[in-house]
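One record is set out below.
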Amino acid sequence: MDEALRFGLAILSGGFVAVIAAELAFKRTAALQERQYAWEQGDQLQALVAELDENIAACGDGAGLPNATVRTAWDYGRRFGFSDSVRALLTQAYIAGRALNGSIAAVEANRTSSSAQPSFDYGVRAMNLLDAAKQAGKSARSAFEAARAALMAEIDDILKSARKPTAKSRK
């Protein structure tokens, strides 16, 4: 009977150790996943800030034809917990960027069509389109600068709200 008792205790001890090891492994895995998720969120926010900087530079200073803006990081970044004011400023900036891209496309289309049929109106139309593109660039630049400033003021709060809940925080 003594050996049966020892065998039973060994089985119980082994089961107890296995449960503890599984719980520790689960907690460690959850912590690693949370850290990885936070890193990914931080990387995506850095990409959004870099994209805002790139768009600010693309809008130019009003002296020449601005360059087109991009929106890849914003397409991904919409899922963040931005405050209503930051989300509104980002939305306005990217709408202004889309308008700028349209103005640039109009200038380019005018160049293409006017080279096929040159006329006196080409110069007037080209100047008007260029002026409109420069104005769109100024508006877009102001919008992107305002959005970037608002985002930077709240970036720590956004990162905290982006953290994935862990098993511990769900209890």
The radius of gyration is 28 Å.
